[in-house]
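**User:**
Everyone, produce one record:

**Assistant:**
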Amino acid sequence: MNKSNLRTTRPLPRAAGFTLMEMIAVIVLLGIVITIVGGGMMNTFGGGKWKAGTIQVKKLSGSVEQYQMSVGSYPNSLEDLTKRDGLGPYAKDTDLKDPFGHPFVYKKPGDAGRDFDIIFLGKDGKPGGDSQDKDYGSWE
């Protein structure tokens, strides 16, 4: 046998990279982090919508006052603000729904001797509740 025909085999170097178990561990950890951070972000976003609803109540209250000064009486419904009475319209149709898509509650006359009340019912659109479901009134 000719020595030149014999091949010497050397072990191949191990390819650099991650094992399947390492990849699964990283994916699981990323999932946990995204769940924790994403949940907090969603609560923050919802809280921003609730704050926007309270600001809309104040804006609508101002629109009701402008209507009263121009027309001489308070509107019978918030929809009256979208009509061309007096110097109107005083609001757009989109202003009459809260950031969660529910209509604002309007009372004329309002409770406790007030001329009117505008109530934002929070995320759930129902009276009462805590956190993002909390109600907010124009008198607050």
Remarks:
- The mean pLDDT is 85.
- The helical segments are 20-71.
